[in-house]
Structure formats: structure tokens, C-alpha cells
């Protein structure tokens, strides 16, 4: 039996591309790459894999992706999404796994001209060249509009049963979802935080201050973030769950109200006394108090002090 590896994002297009190829009697192993900005492997993915009968493997590429994100050879998309470099990285990683799975080609859910930057005909070709996978990337949703790939030329894949979907329309994909019995079809791509402007502001800050690490990226997913100085950041929990998470999973200086459950504030980096004062005033602001008695807890000591709340104007100055 022939086998293919699939770049699987958890989105509808990549799921459909797997099902189209599987329908031709080809075994598929789905590779879900975790960049730190996309959703990790989840129950939905596992349910699809079980329902439709394909294997799925998650591959953590966070460290490699950080290097791509800092300096993408082909630049960013509309936000901070380095889609071309990202695709090249994933395809290179997939290529390295072809022999492990005894697979002979790679499939993706790309649709010609669906995205302005990374899915133009010439860009698809560039991605193929850069990942040194010439003729080995099959894009089942748009294959009939593209040059035949090796698996098509060799008769492993029947080109007639592939599709000619083009552009941003969703109708053909939704019809296919119906055909395959996909209830509540997922979004086209798996959802990438680098396409969200508010998240990108926080990522840009980490890049600017040379603090882009796996741990700092994870921390961006919770709380409100403030850059209070070159070496110090303040993170404020937005609810009880985030407050608990900050307290139990991170190191640094913590500030929280002394007499009631309120926002937990975490300072990261090399923070000065002035930064701690500012963070305590931020804690008072989010506790909705004009003045507040707070606990300031470092690794070695705990002290209690009273602070006035920072003004809204100042909050906006530091908020990322
Ligand atoms: S949207 Fe995000 S995950 Fe998707 S290709 Fe672009 S950078 Fe990569």
C-alpha cells in the first residue's frame, strides 16, 4: 500500500486533503506541527483521526520556529505570520520523516490563491524548491490547476479524482465536508495566533527586547501584559484561573491584594524597585481600589505595603 504524509493543521482544508487521498486507497499519516502559536494536538484531531482512520503525530517545532519568526527570509504576511518560511520549515521536517513512515510523498491542504502571500502559484513553486520536494507535494484541493506531481505521473494518485478549487470561496470545501460526513466543519486553517493583531503586539515586544523564548511565548497566552522598562515586564491575571496558573507555574516577583482574592501580578526579568512600585499600582488599578494593601512576594521574602492605583492614562502607556 502506498503511503503519504500530510501537513495537518486541524483545519478543514488539511482534513479534506487527507480524506481525498485516503479515498484512493492511500494510507495517510497526519503530522501536526506545534509552532507555539497554533493549537496543539487536541481531542478534535484525535476524533477525526479515529473516525476517518488515519494516524496522527504531533511534532514540536517551537525552537526552530522561533528562529524563523525572528528573521523570516520571505517576510511576514498581513500581521506577524511568516507563512512562506513556516511552510518551508514544516515541509523540510516532513521530508525528514518520509523514510521513517515509508511514505513517498507529502500532501497539504493549500488552495491556489486562497491567501494573498503564501498560496500564489509562483510561491507554491518556491516553497517546493526551497524544501527540495520537487514534484512530491500534492495539493489535492487545487491539484487539477497545478502541474502534475510525481505520484500522479506514476499512477499512484488518480488526478481525475482530485479538485480544481481556487481562491477564497468556501463553498466547494463545505460541500466536500458534507460528502465526507464532517459535522461542524472546522475553520479553513487551524487558527494561528500570529494572524491576530493584538497578540502580535505582544510578540513584537518580545522580539524587540530579544526575549522570544518558548516559555515567554506560552506566557503571552494568559493575562494582560505590560512593558514597564527595558528589562522588566508585568503580567496581570484576568481571572481566578489565570491567577492560580501564574502563582503555581512561574518564578519571579508576585504582587497580590492582602485581604481578598484579586489580580495576581507577576514581574518577569530584571526588575527594579521602581518597577515593583509600578506593578503594585497596576494591581491596585485592576482591584478597582484607589489605594490597596498588597503582598509583595519574592523568592526570599514577603512584605506588605500600601499603594495608590495607577491612572488609566498610564495604564495605556505601558499596556501591550
Ligand atoms: S498562518 Fe501561522 S501556522 Fe499557518 S503558515 Fe502562516 S505562520 Fe504558519
From TrEMBL:
Record has Nucleotide-binding as a keyword: yes
Domain NFACT protein RNA binding span(s) in chain numbering: 223-319
GO molecular function: ATP binding; CCA tRNA nucleotidyltransferase activity
InterPro entries (UniProt xref): NFACT-R_2 (IPR059101), Rossmann-like_a/b/a_fold (IPR014729), ThiI_AANH (IPR020536)
Domain Thil AANH positions: 3-141
Protein name from the UniProt record: tRNA U34 2-thiouridine synthase MnmA/TrmU, contains the PP-loop ATPase domain
PANTHER family: THIL AANH DOMAIN-CONTAINING PROTEIN, TRNA 5-METHYLAMINOMETHYL-2-THIOURIDYLATE -METHYLTRANSFERASE
Amino acid at each position: 500500500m502506498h503511503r503519504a504524509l500530510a501537513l495537518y493543521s486541524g483545519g478543514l482544508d488539511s482534513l479534506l486533503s487527507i480524506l481525498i487521498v485516503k479515498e484512493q486507497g492511500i494510507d495517510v499519516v497526519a503530522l501536526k506541527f506545534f509552532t507555539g502559536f497554533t493549537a496543539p494536538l487536541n481531542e478534535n484531531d484525535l476524533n477525526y483521526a479515529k473516525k476517518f482512520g488515519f494516524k496522527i503525530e504531533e511534532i514540536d517545532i517551537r525552537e526552530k520556529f522561533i528562529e524563523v519568526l525572528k528573521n523570516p527570509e520571505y517576510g511576514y504576511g498581513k500581521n506577524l505570520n511568516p507563512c512562506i518560511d513556516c511552510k518551508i520549515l514544516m515541509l523540510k521536517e516532513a521530508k525528514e520523516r518520509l523514510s521513517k513512515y515509508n511514505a513517498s510523498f507529502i500532501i497539504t491542504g493549500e488552495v491556489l490563491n486562497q491567501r494573498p502571500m503564501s498560496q500564489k502559484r509562483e510561491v507554491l513553486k518556491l516553497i517546493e524548491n526551497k524544501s527540495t520536494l520537487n514534484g512530491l507535494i500534492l495539493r489535492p484541493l487545487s491539484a487539477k490547476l497545478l502541474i502534475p506531481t510525481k505520484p500522479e505521473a506514476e499512477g499512484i494518485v488518480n488526478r481525475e479524482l482530485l479538485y480544481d478549487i481556487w481562491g477564497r470561496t468556501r463553498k466547494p470545501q463545505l460541500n466536500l465536508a458534507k460528502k465526507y460526513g464532517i459535522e461542524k466543519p472546522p475553520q479553513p486553517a487551524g487558527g494561528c495566533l500570529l494572524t491576530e493583531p493584538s497578540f502580535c503586539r505582544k510578540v513584537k515586544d518580545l522580539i524587540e527586547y530579544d526575549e522570544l523564548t518558548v516559555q515567554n511565548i506560552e506566557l503571552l497566552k494568559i493575562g494582560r501584559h505590560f512593558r514597564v522598562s527595558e528589562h522588566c515586564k508585568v503580567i496581570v491575571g484576568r481571572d481566578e484561573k489565570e491567577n492560580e496558573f501564574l502563582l503555581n507555574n512561574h518564578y519571579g516577583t508576585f504582587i497580590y491584594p492582602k485581604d481578598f482574592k484579586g489580580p495576581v501580578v507577576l514581574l518577569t526579568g530584571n526588575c527594579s524597585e521602581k518597577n515593583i512600585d509600578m506593578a503594585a499600582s497596576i494591581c491596585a488599578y485592576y482591584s478597582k481600589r484607589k489605594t490597596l494593601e498588597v503582598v509583595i512576594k519574592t523568592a526570599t521574602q514577603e512584605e506588605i505595603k500600601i499603594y495608590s492605583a495607577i491612572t488609566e492614562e498610564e495604564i495605556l502607556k505601558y499596556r501591550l
